[in-house]
Amino acid sequence: MGRALPARIARACATVGIVGLAGCGDAMLPSDYTGKPAGEVHGTVLSTRSEPEADRPLLSLEWLAPADGRPGSTSLIGQLVRYQPSPKLQVGWDIGLGFPTEGTRLEFDVGQQRVRLGVARMVYFDDRTQDRRLDWSCGGPDCDRVKAISAQYVLYIESPPYCQTEGRPAQPRLRPGYHYYSFDGIHLRQLSSGEAMSFSLTDRTPADADPSAELRAFAGALWRSWSVSALEGC
Question: What does the angle CA 216 – CA 221 – CA 222 come to, to the nearest 5 degrees?
Fold first, then answer.
């Protein structure tokens, strides 16, 4: 197991340290950024065996998005994440998360509120086809290779659910911006500041590693949790 590496969330950007991944990338935070971090998250990589390095390494957020013209159906939209070796750590990477790309917001009603959000998992892959994206339907020997995928889920809140108690003004249950969750198929838990976000190393074709079902289950669990809370109060 890799050791936990400190990271910072600054405004709409986040930096996450990850052990054991190889590659190159651009600078994350703007060079003139001096603001106070809004929060912290850690990263570790878990591996049960030695994996070959990626020849053309890329890192992306794979967002669950509504599929046009097919009610209730979804697709995955990839958003490349810029990263670079951390100048403060001998091992690890600084990873920058910008605003989610267009077309990746999901909407549903919680009580009388319309919630707008994005859900994703972080995927490190070998871009063998050199098109800078993952084709999740590809399952042959000439496909890209998924090298690592985050065990936790990335949640981006644009329009949050609110909590209302008698005699008090409504309060957002979550602040707008990025949040990180663990989800075992039943239980949701938000990662606390300083808690590790883990990545499992693998070496599979996209078709064998498609996270769509897990992302749909995660989004559904959020909706159920907030809906029950809305009925029960804050």
Answer: 100
- If one counts every other C-beta atom within 10 angstroms of the C-beta of residue 215, the result is 23
pLDDT per residue as tens digits for the range 171-226: 888 889 889 999 999 999 998 876 766 777 788 999 999 999 999 999 999 999 98
Nearest-CA neighbor of 56 among 89, 23, 81?
23
- Count of structural domains, the chain: 1
> Does 54 reside within a domain?
yes
Take residue 54 and report the two structure tokens written for it: 């990626």
- Is residue 1 one of the residues assigned to a domain? no
Domain range for 174 is 8-232
Residue 45 lies in a domain: yes
Torsion of CA 127, 199, 28, 38, to 10 degrees: 150
